[in-house]
């Protein structure tokens, strides 16, 4: 059974089609970097997979068609949007433990074992020192790492990440890519990750999907393919506006 299969996907907003006849197939757990110019439709693809954008065509998640109703998110998917905001003061550990919501019933409380798992995840991301801090007081990069801890705690087989390294310094960028790599290899997760950090992809194993290409397809990551796509993106400005 394939992890994810997309056939002749057409999606966009009102009169504006951003994804045209997109087809790709992820046969087994893998890391997939989604790249492309600003406005090319990368976030739109992840929003389509999480039921936020209407589409035509077929999306099979672990062999099952994705529900077409608005806001539907398959149980097998976790999603970290580009902008994720919290407007009330909440402790980091409280926000991270919420990653276990799929395993809880509505009014269940989080147990000390649940908090233990949240702390272990913070430790894995090397941010245990943030556990008792108020989330809204953290820097943008620290907040991004906390969201990542929450997402990893969800433990879904397929993770959709929209620019998870956007605000991170070079050390933390590398760390997050290493974590994604380990996650795929050691826990057989599939990670679809939107990124503009092409050079961080060089040591990764997995695939590239360049949404700015006229007919995007999955391409194996290698130094040659990463650098060729980087040159393509540097030379051709094919943003949605110009299409
Ligand atoms: N809800 C919406 N209604 C109408 N147009 C939208 C909506 N959301 C996004 N768009 C437009 O669709 C286009 C693609 O947006 P999208 O966020 O998918 O691009 P992206 O490739 O993720 O870009 P970036 O690299 O800048 O994050 C943009 O021009 C954007 O303005």
From TrEMBL:
Residues 4-238 form the ABC transporter domain. The keyword Cell membrane does not apply. Coiled coil: none annotated. InterPro entries: AAA+_ATPase (IPR003593), ABC_transporter-like_ATP-bd (IPR003439), ABC_transporter-like_CS (IPR017871), Metal_Ion_Import_ABC (IPR050153), P-loop_NTPase (IPR027417). It holds the Pfam family ABC_tran. One of its GO terms (molecular function) is ATP binding. This is ABC transporter ATP-binding protein. It comes from Rufibacter hautae.
């Amino acid at each position: 059974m394939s992890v994810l299969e997309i056939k002749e996907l057409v999606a966009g907003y009102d009169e504006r089609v951003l994804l045209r006849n997109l087809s790709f197939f992820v046969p087994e757990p893998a890391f997939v970097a989604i790249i492309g110019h600003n406005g090319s439709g990368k976030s739109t693809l992840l929003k389509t997979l999480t039921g936020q954008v209407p589409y035509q065509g077929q999306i099979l998640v672990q062999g099952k068609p994705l529900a077409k109703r608005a806001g539907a998110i398959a149980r097998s998917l976790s999603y970290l949007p580009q902008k994720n905001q919290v407007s009330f003061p909440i402790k980091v550990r409280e926000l991270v433990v919420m990653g276990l919501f799929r395993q809880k019933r509505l009014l269940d409380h989080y147990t000390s074992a649940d908090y233990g798992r949240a702390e272990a995840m913070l430790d894995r991301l090397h941010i245990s020192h943030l556990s008792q801090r108020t989330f809204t007081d953290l820097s943008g990069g620290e907040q991004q790492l906390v969201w990542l801890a929450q997402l990893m705690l969800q433990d879904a087989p397929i993770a959709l990440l929209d620019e998870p390294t956007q605000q991170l310094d070079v050390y933390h960028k590398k760390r997050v890519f290493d974590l994604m790599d380990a996650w795929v290899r050691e826990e057989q997760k599939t990670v679809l990750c939107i990124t503009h950090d092409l050079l961080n992809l060089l040591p990764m194993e997995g695939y590239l999907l360049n949404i700015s290409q006229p007919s995007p397809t999955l391409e194996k990551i290698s130094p040659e393919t990463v650098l060729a796509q980087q040159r393509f993106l540097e030379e051709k400005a094919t943003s949605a506006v110009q299409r």
